[in-house]
């Protein structure tokens, strides 16, 4: 019986940057405070098994944003800092495919399967997942390895981060990706 690991899936770590540790900037409360711990476990597994890894880094064009290249928040969080031999692709918009060579890189490496983790569930993770699904990649989105923040609605009402997270995942599941928890992913990886 073959395992998911046999497909040599690429791990796509999206925007796991220090700027997202500033919860007040992004709307207040954040859900899934263990997301980076899970991301680190997945990254360690990929490294131990010599599987392909791509780090995505958001470079905001707004100089006041914590994710602007001139800000400390632009840096990757320590737990998932890329190794020298790991690819880093920098983007300026929500999708890791827009304005970057990500698709060319994946196609040149004959990648067919992506594992997506990172921040934030309803923005860059969602947009990248949607495009990856539309491009025809087999996509697995890991629910406990992503997180988001409270959001203010059009009428000024607040929506809790957990609700935003769960509805974003529900919108993606079985349409653009297979949404799994990390323990389910590890089971599939090891067959």
Number of discrete helical segments: 5
Mean pLDDT: 96
**Portion of residues in helices?**
25-40%
Major sheet: arrangement of strands: 3-2-1-4-5-8
Q: What percent of residues are in strands?
A: 15-25%
N-to-C SSE string, H for helix and E for strand = EHEEHEHEEEHEH
State Rg. Answer: 16 Å
Overall geometry comes to globular
Largest sheet: 6 strands, parallel
**Secondary structure category:** alpha/beta
Low-pLDDT stretches are none
Distance between the termini: 7 Å
What is the β-strand count?
8
Q: Features of this protein?
A:
191 residues, alpha/beta, six-stranded parallel beta sheet, two-stranded antiparallel sheet, 5 helices
Walk me through the topology.
Blueprint: E1 10-14, H1 35-48, E2 53-58, E3 87-91, H2 102-108, E4 113-119, H3 121-134, E5 138-147, E6 151-152, E7 158-159, H4 161-172, E8 178-180, H5 182-190
Parallel strand pairs: 1-2, 1-4, 2-3, 4-5, 5-8
Antiparallel strand pairs: 6-7
Helix pairs in contact: 3-4
Characterization of this structure:
This protein has 191 residues and is α/β, with parallel strands linked by helices. It is 29% helix and 21% strand. The chain contains five helices and eight strands; from the N terminus they run βαββαβαβββαβα. The protein has helices spanning 35-48, 102-108, 121-134, 161-172, 182-190; strands at residues 10-14, 53-58, 87-91, 113-119, 138-147, 151-152, 158-159, 178-180. The strands form two sheets. Strands 3-2-1-4-5-8 form a six-stranded parallel beta sheet, sandwiched between helices. The protein has a two-stranded antiparallel ribbon with strand order 6-7. Strand 4 (113-119), helix 3 (121-134) and strand 5 (138-147) form a beta-alpha-beta unit. Helix 3 runs parallel beside helix 4 (161-172). The termini are close together.
């Amino acid at each position: 019986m073959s395992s998911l690991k046999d497909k040599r899936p690429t791990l796509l770590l999206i925007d796991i940057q220090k700027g997202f540790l500033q919860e007040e900037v992004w709307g207040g409360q954040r859900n899934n405070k263990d997301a980076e711990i899970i991301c680190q476990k997945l990254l360690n597994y990929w490294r131990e098994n010599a599987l392909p890894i791509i780090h995505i880094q958001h470079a905001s064009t707004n100089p006041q944003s914590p994710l602007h290249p001139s800000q400390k928040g632009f840096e990757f969080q320590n737990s998932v800092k890329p190794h020298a031999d790991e690819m880093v692709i920098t983007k300026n918009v929500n999708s890791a495919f827009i304005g970057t060579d990500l698709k060319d890189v994946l196609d040149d490496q004959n990648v067919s399967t992506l594992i997506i983790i990172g921040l934030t569930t309803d923005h860059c993770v969602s947009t990248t997942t949607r495009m990856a699904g539309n491009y025809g990649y087999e996509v697995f989105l890991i629910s406990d390895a992503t997180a988001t923040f409270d959001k203010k609605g059009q009428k000024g009402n607040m929506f809790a981060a957990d609700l935003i997270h769960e509805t974003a995942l529900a919108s993606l599941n079985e349409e653009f990706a297979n949404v799994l928890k990390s323990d389910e992913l590890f089971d599939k990886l090891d067959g």
